[in-house]
Design goal:
Layout lengths: L2 H8 L1 E8 L3 E2 L5 E2 L2 E8 L9 E5 L8 H4 L16 E5 L14 E2 L4 E2 L9 H14 L5 E7 L1 H13 L3 E7 L7 H15 L13 H15 L2 H8 L10 H14 L4 H13 L9 H6 L4 E7 L7 H10 L3 E6 L12 H14 L3
Parallel strand pairs: 5-6, 5-9, 9-10, 10-11, 11-12
Antiparallel strand pairs: 1-4, 2-3, 4-6, 7-8
Helix pairs in contact: 3-4, 5-6, 5-9, 6-8
């Protein structure tokens, strides 16, 4: 392949999908006209069987080649010279998709607190409308971690035989009380901000800083902080971990908003692939594609046992594990292990 051909394949396009008919939500509420921001890399092959759809986590965006740079890009596992790679910003997120700060067509003002509650099933349904718009009759691989893995599993259920592989990383089939509890404590932090309740784009910003600090404790493992945040001198105050968490809180609050954080954390809580389908085990048994569930041995948020549960209960399940001190965030860090896991999975599943 020439360098010119390589550039053509690796070039990313960023687009907006506008859905005029809106979306009927699982709650029975109708979300009117909405949009999804999405990116594509690579080209569809003649058989249209090289589609890889990447799903981001809670505060991610559609630029998967940036936050999963160890997996996606030229000469990486998902190389755009071989695959047509799609990544869409979740409905409710603030990176180009319809979200609480978008204009409510009924009022002509931002939704703010009137934005409807979303579930992972709703998020999957919005992506399926985008799939149909793009004319993609089948998907080779869905891959997502954390909230993205939850949405991918929901979508795998509805796609049925239109999907060949689902890779569910550091995720689960149903949100645990532990996850819901962490998310609720973060929303309580947002609520404690005196500006929360105001119809303002910055409402809850300081609360979001605290929420992110709480979240960071669940995304890592105690050993992570011993390794990276231990103080080298005797102290009574101003510890490294304190400044680190404050920094992380401000960093997120400067690029995200409390409204989207609220909506998407609620969506994570809602996740239950078995709701209305006879229970989790029965729903998983009706997912026909090949499923790779990847757990992290040190993940205290989405435990490795939850990933094993998925692999045991789908008809064509495999389980692999990342070994890391980085806890839940290992799926965004341990690229070498992920590449090895994906390589072995696809070698084992060549038709």
């Amino acid at each position: 392949m020439t360098s010119q051909q390589s550039n053509i394949f690796s070039e990313m396009t960023q687009e907006i999908f506008s859905c005029e008919e809106g979306l009927m939500l699982e709650s029975g509420e109708h979300l009117p006209h909405f949009q999804l921001s999405y990116t594509t890399q690579g080209q569809l092959n003649p058989d249209q069987d090289n589609v890889v759809w990447v799903l981001h986590a809670l505060t991610g965006d559609a630029n998967a080649h940036e936050w999963w740079s160890g997996l996606i890009g030229e000469d990486k596992f998902f190389d755009p010279s071989k695959y047509f790679i799609v990544c869409a910003n979740l409905l409710g997120s603030c990176y180009g998709s319809t979200q609480p700060l978008s204009i409510n067509p009924k009022t002509g003002e931002p939704y703010y607190y009137d934005f409807p509650n979303l579930t992972t099933r709703d998020l999957a349904a919005s992506f399926d409308l985008l799939r149909q718009y793009l004319g993609l009759g089948k998907i080779h691989t869905l891959i997502g971690g954390s909230l993205g893995g939850q949405v991918a599993l929901e979508w795998a259920y509805t796609l049925q035989r239109r999907l060949k592989h689902a890779i569910i990383v550091a995720s689960n089939a149903k949100a645990s009380p532990w996850i819901i509890g962490f998310n609720e404590s973060q929303r309580m932090a947002i609520e404690s901000d005196s500006t929360w309740g105001q119809r303002s784009t910055d409402a809850g910003k300081r609360g979001l800083e605290a929420a992110r600090a709480i979240g960071m404790l669940s995304y890592r493992h105690p050993q992570t902080f011993i390794h990276s945040q231990s103080d080298t001198e005797e102290k009574r105050d101003n510890f490294r971990i304190s400044s680190y968490l404050r920094y992380q809180g401000k960093k997120l609050a400067n690029r995200f908003n409390a409204f989207s954080y609220w909506v998407l954390s609620k969506a994570m809580d809602s996740h239950d692939v078995g709701r209305g389908r006879g229970g989790t085990v029965k729903a998983l048994s009706q997912i026909p594609c090949k499923v790779l569930a990847v757990g992290v041995d040190s993940d205290v948020l989405f435990t490795s046992e939850e990933s094993r549960f998925i692999s045991r209960n789908v008809p064509n399940g495999n389980y692999r594990e990342i070994h890391s001190i980085y806890g839940h965030d290992a799926f965004l860090i341990e690229f070498e292990q992920l590449n090895y896991i994906l390589t072995s999975f696809f070698l084992e599943n060549i038709n």
